[in-house]
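re the bet — no i am not wrong, look at it urself. input seq straight from the record:
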Amino acid sequence: MNNLEIEYLTPNQYKKYEIELLTIFNEKNGGMLYSDDFLINSDSIVIAKMNQSVVAYMAITANIEKELDREHEIYTEEPEIKDSLVIKHLVVKQEYRGLNIATQLIENLKEYSKQNKIKNLYLWTTPDNKVALKFYEKMGFYKMGDYRPANGTFQGLNNFHSIMMVYKI
C-alpha cells in the first residue's frame, strides 16, 4: 500500500479530524467500542490517510494506571507503568479492511516505540472478537490479564468480558 500516510497527532492537532474520527468510531462493525473518550483522554491519535482521507486511526495513551482496573482484573504478570503505552482504539474504516492498514499502524507504532524507548504496548479486546485476537497474536501480543469472574460470570467494564494483551518491545 504505497499511498498510505501515517501521521502522529497531538490532541490539538487531531481536533481538525474530529468528524472523520467519530465517523469511523461510529461504524462499530467488527469491534466493541464502548467510549468515544479517546478524543479527550488520548495522548496521541495515529491516523492512516489515503488520498487525503482518514481511513483508520489508533488512539494511544501513556497513562497506563488510569486504564487498569485493579479491582476487577487479574494479571499473569504485573503491568509495567513506566515506558509503556496503551492502544485505546484501533479502527479501520469498513471499506478499507483487509488491506493491511492495521498491520502497518501496529508496525509503525512498534518502530516509534523502539525509537522512543517504550518497553510495552498494552491493549484490551474481547475474547469473542476472534478477528482481533488472531490479528494481535499475529502481531506478537499475548494475553496477560483477564477480568475476575463474579458469581461465575465475567464482569468487566460496562459488564462485558475483556482481556488485556501486551507486546514487549
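see?? DSSP finds six helices and ten strands in the chain. told u. also The helical segments are 11-14, 18-27, 38-41, 64-67, 101-115, 130-138. so pay up
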